Structures are given as structure tokens and as C-alpha cells.
Amino acid sequence: MVPMPFAELHLHLEGTLEPETILRLAERNRIDLPYADVDALSAQYDFADLQSFLNLYYANMATLQTAADFAEMTDAYLARAARAGVRHAEVFLDPQAHLSRGIALEEVMDGVSTALESSLATHGVSSGLIIAMLRDHSAQSAMNVLDAVVALGKPILGIGLDSAEVGHPPSKFIDVFARARAEGLHLVAHAGEEGPPAYIWEALDLLGVERVDHGIRCLEDDALVERLVTEQTPLTVCPLSNVRLRVVDDIADHPLPAMLQRGLNVSVNSDDPAYFGGYLDDNVTAVRDALGLDEAALTTLARNSVTASFADDTRKVELLAEIASG
Ligand code: HPA
Ligand code: ZN
């Protein structure tokens, strides 16, 4: 079966490092990891919450050293995403997590950009890069990264906000997002994953984001749902991630059908596929099978993913036509 075309809008490149790749990079770069083999590493993939995942996610990044490593990681994701039906990908990168362990920004950006530049020709996937700011670091650190990335001149789509949510509200980053807006960049932020609906309000009102990443806790606030429906603000929902990080108890309890029912502009995404049990196709299959989403609902999710993307209009029209032709 040919998979339905989708845009993937919520994907952390560093979250695509498969255990096998982590061990191979560790050996190549002579990095000591406390795991003897893939089984020992994979046994760690049992998370109590977002922070317990982030601890492993950041630790495993130690294996990424050279531009070639970053290019390889990005290219491997694009190849796998293409097989999943992804035709357009807007991917997050966490530069602060690499700068803080002594890797030069040029090394990181050169590798990722090289792979993204050839994504359409090589994999049939158009792509763009979103620089994600670590919200548990200072606003000054985010501003420094923004300045450095802009000065580097590699093409980027916009900025986002990720990492440990609770205790780090969007309001902390007002100046950073204002500066990014002045640079003409797109603005998105993780909000309402573990954090309260108030963080979604802040992301909208104080940061001016165009999309909310996750956002599922909006359902706790009727006025917020009404606002998101009226403005058709895209929410990039990540079902398998929500289960693995215990944001929802079970895939069968996921609120995606309720969100669709209420008219929210939701799409399905894989977040950190190497850690959460699957790529975009696995997420789509999971929601179809566990939540009984029919063909019409899946088509709505595919259409939403394209219209919510920052792809140019020509590409959007092309992808929407592909979706319509089934
Ligand atoms: N949430 C917040 N920050 C992240 C995530 C996530 O799921 N993945 C990588 N950084
Ligand atoms: Zn995420």
C-alpha cells in the first residue's frame, strides 16, 4: 500500500537517533557510553515523564561530534520518513544542547543543512529547519543562539521552544520571539504537553506563535478551545509520544478524536520516533487502529498537516492534490 502523503511538522532530529546508530557513533567517535549493547540501551527506554526522557535524549547526543554525524542522522530520518509517506518535513534542532558540550554551531548547522538541502532531490521530501530553544536554559542563551544562527546565514524556517516545560513558561522568551519575528522567521512553541493551558495562552498572546506543538491540554479550558478553533491555530499532536511520556494513559484514551470532533486543527506527528516507538506511519496506524479513525478523518489529518506547514503555496497545492487523489 502506498502511504497517504503527509507533512511532518513536529520532529526533533536528535530524537531520530536509533539505538544502533548511537552505539555506532559512540564507537566511531570514541565516546564512552554506559551500555554494552543495543539491548542494554533499549532497556532504558521506559519513561516516567518528559524529564526522564530528556535525560536520556541529551545524554545520547554526546555521540554526535562532526558535521558528517549530523548529516547522517538527518539523512537517515528523511529516508525513513519518505517510506512513512512524509512528503514535507519541518524539523527541530536543539543547537544549545550541542554548543553546551563544546560542538561548534558551524559543525552542527553544516551537517544538518547539507542533508536538508538535498532532501527533495534525494528523498522526494521538501524540508525546512526550525531552531528550537531549550526553555530550561536562560532567555539570554536563546538570544545568543538566535543571533549566532542568523549570522551564520544558513536557511532556517523559524524558531520553536522545547525541553522541560513546567516552570519555564513562554513569557520567559518574549524578547527572543520578538527578535525572531523581526528577522521574518516563523514562530512555534511546545505548550500544553505537560504544562497547563495557561502556557498555551501565553504562547499565543505573548509570543505570537503560528502553531502550537502538542497543545493537548487545551481541552481543559473551553475558552481556549474556542479561541483555537476560531483561529484554526494548528496543533501538532504526537500520539505515541504522549503515551510513552505518560501524558495520556493509553493510546485508546488519546484525545485526538475529541480534538477533531471539536474542530481543532490537529495533525499527527512522531516527535522523537527513535524513542517513542515509531515514525509517522506508526503513529497514523496507531490512531487508526486504537481510536477507530476512518479514511475521512485520516484525510483531514493529512490535509491539516499540509495547510499548517510553512511550505510555499505551489508545494502545498501539489501535496493537497496528491491527498485528494487518494
Ligand atoms: N517535549 C519537549 N521537548 C522535547 C521533546 C518533547 O517531546 N522532545 C525533544 N525535546
Ligand atoms: Zn516535541
Automatic annotation (TrEMBL):
Cofactor(s) required, per the database record: Zn(2+)
Keywords carried by this UniProt record: Cytoplasm, Hydrolase, Metal-binding, Nucleotide metabolism, Zinc
Active site: 193 (proton donor)
InterPro entries per UniProt: A/AMP_deam_AS, A_deaminase_dom, ADE, Ado/ade_deaminase, Metal_Hydrolase
GO terms under biological process: adenine catabolic process; hypoxanthine salvage; nucleotide metabolic process; purine ribonucleoside monophosphate biosynthetic process
Broadest EC class assigned to this enzyme: hydrolase
Pfam families noted in UniProt: A_deaminase
A GO term from the CC aspect: cytosol
Sites marked Important for catalytic activity: 214
Entry's cofactor comment: Binds 1 zinc ion per subunit.
Domain spans labelled Adenosine deaminase: 5-324
HAMAP family: Adenine_deaminase
Record's protein name: Adenine deaminase
Organism: Mycolicibacterium hodleri
